[in-house]
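Q: What would this complex look like in 3D?
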Amino acid sequence: MIRTPLRPLARILSARENGENPDAIEHQNRRLRHEQIRDHDRNRAEGRLLVLGVFFFCAFVVVGARMGLLAVSDPVEPRAQAPGSIIANTRADIVDRNGNILATNLDTHALYAQPHHMVDREGAAKALVKIFPDLKEDRLIKDFTGKRKFLWVKKKISPEQMQAVHDIGDPGLLFAPRDMRLYPNGKLAAHIMGGSSFGREGVHAAEVIGVAGAEKYFDTYLRDPANAGKPLELSLDLSVQAASERVLDGGMKLMNAKGATSILMDVHTGEVISVVSLPSFDPNDRPHAAIAGDPSDSPLFNRSVQGVYELGSTFKIFAVAQAMELGLVNADTMINTAGPMRVGGHLIGEFQNKNYGTISVSQIIEKSSNRGTGKLALLIGKERQQEFLRSLGLFDKLDFEIIEASGSTPLLPPKGKYGDLSAVTISYGHGISTTAMHLAAGYGAIANGGRMVKPTLLKQTGPVIGARVMREDVAAAARRMLRDVVAGDDGTASFGDVEGYFVAGKTGTADKPKARGGGYYTDKTITTFAAMFPAENPQYVLIVTLDEPSENSGDKPRRTAGWTAVPIAAEMIRRVAPLLGMRPTIEPAEVAGITLTSSNN
Amino acid sequence: MKSVIYVLTALGVIGLAFWAYRENYATQAVLNNTDRLHAEIRDAHSRLAVLRAEWAYQNRPDRLRDLAELNFERLQLLALNPDQFGAVDEIQYPAPELLPITNSVDVSTMNAENDL
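A: Here is my prediction, written as C-alpha cells for the whole assembly.
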C-alpha cells in the first residue's frame, strides 16, 4: 500500500503562498486515509462473515441431511460394534434349583391366510382340513370366499404340518414365525408353571404372556429382554417334585380321595422344594377355567394355596407352644380334660366322645385332646392368641410367588366376634380356615427353632433368618411332643414313622363344611398331616392334605388323618429324603452284653 | 523444484486414494463376514435352544421312570431307599478275629453255670 504523506510539501508550500491554512490539507489527507482504512476493514469483515455464514450453512445442511436420512431410512443394527452375545428377543427360561429346564421356548410357525391372494380357495380349504382334522371345511370356505382379507388359520403348527401346507402351494397361505412356550416335563409342577398364551399378535412376531402361576407372577421379569440369557431359578427340585407327585397320586387313589396336596419346605430358607396339587393338568395344553360349579373340582384349582380349609388338630401345637412360651405350663403340667366343658354356651367335645381324664400337656398333643388345648387357650386369652397366630403369618394373605396365592386370605371369625369360644375352637383348628402353605410356614417356625419363615418359590443363597416368634427351648419341647405323636404308644400318627428319619408331626381331621353353609358333612373330611424330619434338628417340613379321603380296608370307612394322610406322608418321606441327600440315622446297635467265659469246675 | 513437489503430491493423492479404496472394500468384507457370523450364531443359538428343550423333554422324569420300568430285567433299577446308604462311621465292620488263646488262666468262675 502506497502511503500518502499527510502534509505533501508541494501542496503545503503552494498553500502557504496562497495564504491558506496548511493544516486543512493535513486534515483532508487524514480523512481520506481513515476512509481507506475503514473500507478495507469492512471488506475484510464482510469476507469473514461470508465464510462463517457458508460454514454454518454447510454444518446445518449436513445435520439436516443426516436427520432426514435417518428419518427415511430403515433402521439397521450397528454391524461393526455388535455386542458379543446376541440379544435374544425371547422369554426367559424357568429352571429348577439344579438347572433342569421347567419352561423354555421353541421356534414354531403360525399359519395365516390372505384370501384375496389365493388361487383355489375351495381346494385350499379342502387340503387344509386334510392336514388339520380339527378345522371345519365349510367354515374355512366361508372365511376364504368372504370379504376378509386376513385371517389366522392355526396359531401353532409343527414343521411337518408346515411342509404339508407348503406343498398345497397356494400363494395366499402364509406363515408367521412364533415363539412357543414349552413345558418339557408335561404335568410336572403344573400349578406352579401355570401356563402361557399369546398377547398381541403380529405377522412377524407375537408376545408370549403368562396366564397363571409363576409365569404370570414373574411375567415382567421373564419378558424383559435384559433377562433373556438369565433363566428364572426356582426353589423346586425336579426329581423330588416328580417323586412327590407319584407318591401323592398313588396315595390319593388308594385313599379314594377327591384331591390332594403336599408341600415340602426347607425350614431354614423357606424354599419350597416340592409342591403338589392333584388333580393336575398339562400346562402345554391348559384347560379352560370352569365357569360353573365348585372351583375346587377343576384341575386348575391349586389346593396348596387356594384351598382355604379348616385344618383341624394340626393347630393344637400352636396353642401348646404359646402356653409354654408364656410360662403358663410346661410339657409335664397336668391338665384335667374331663368333660363336660362349656364355653359360650357350646359344649366342647372330644373325637368320638372320648374322655382322656387328667393328662399332661405332652399327652394332650399325643392324644389330640380338644378340651385340653381349649383349656390352654382360655389360659392364654384371646388377645394373646391372636397376636401369636398373627406372628406366625396365619392371619395374613400368603405372599407366595404364584399368582393364585393372591386369593389365599385365611377365613377368620368376623371382627368383634373373636370371643372365648373362637379362641377355644381355633386352638384345635376349627373356626379358622387357612391354606396348607400357611400351615407349612407355622410348622417351619417350630422346626427351625422358633423363627418366622416365609415360604418362597425362589432359590435362596443362604438361610433366611426371620423374626423370633418363640424361644428355642419351647420349639424344641414342641418338637419332642410332635415326635411322641408319631413314636408314642398312643400317638395318632403311628403309621408316620420312617426308620432313620425320626419323623415328628401332628394329624388333623376336620369335617368338610357344606358349600352353601348350614353345618358340616358327616362323611366328608379334610385330613392333614403336618410333619417335620428329623425331629431333633429338622431340615424339612412336609404337609400332606387329602380332600375327602376314605380308607376302606376295614369294616367301615376310616376318614381320619392317621389312617389316610399319615401313611402317604411316611411313604413320601421314605422316597424323597434320600433324593434330598439326607442320610438315615441308624439307631445305635445294642451294646454287646457281657458274656461270661466258661469255666471248668 | 515446484514441479517435483506437484508430482509427489499427485502421487501421494493417488496412493491415498488407492489405500482408501482397498480399506473400503476390506471393511465391507469384514462387515459381511460379521453379518454371516452373527447369522450363524443366531442359528446356533436357536439350534441350541431346540436341543436343550429336546434334552429336557427326553429326560423328563415320567419318561425315565417308564424306561426304567420297561428295561427292568436288564437294568434292575429301583427307587433309592433310605436303607441303601448311610454314613461310613455307622457301618458295623466285622470284629477283628481274636488271637487264639493259649495257656488260659481261670480268674474266677463267678458261678457262671448257675447264673446262666
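A: To summarize the key features: The interface with chain B takes residues 79-80, 82, 86, 88, 90, 100-101, 104-107, 182, 184-188, 238-239, 242-243, 246, 498-501, 574-575, 577-579, 583-586, 589, 596-601 of chain A (CB under 8 Å). Residues 1-40 of chain A form one domain.
Q: Very helpful, thank you.
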